[in-house]
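Page 42, continued from yesterday. The earlier attempt failed because a stray header line got pasted into the input along with the sequence. Redoing it now with the clean sequence only.
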Amino acid sequence: QVYLVESGGGAVQAGGSLRLSCAASGRAFVSYVMGWFRQAPGKERDFVAGISWSGGTTVYADSVKGRFTISRDNAKNVAYLQLNSLKPEDTAVYYCAALKYPWNSDYVPAGRLDYTEWGQGTQVTVSS
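This time it went through. Structure tokens are written below.
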């Protein structure tokens, strides 16, 4: 089990950038798939991006492809989400999530219910 803490959210104008960080504590970070989700007021919590525990496979929601980049540094136990070319519709609370999956180093699920560990969220607000 890991404990996740997000940081890096804030307010930015459309077209701007942010980098979100997810610091993980606990055991066996390298065996955890990491994902980012977001939830706007009154909306479902939706998948944004995921990365396999090897770092070799990434998956993105269609709405963020080409703009967001997920990465991880297993030596530092940190996962990142780089948000570029931000749009007002990107405004949401962004959550870091993790799934222990040691059996396949390339596995990246995209469903909210697939992940078992969650951070507290960090607010991203994009103004026009």
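Notes: The CA atoms of residues 5 and 119 lie 5 Å apart.
Reminder to self: strip header lines before submitting.
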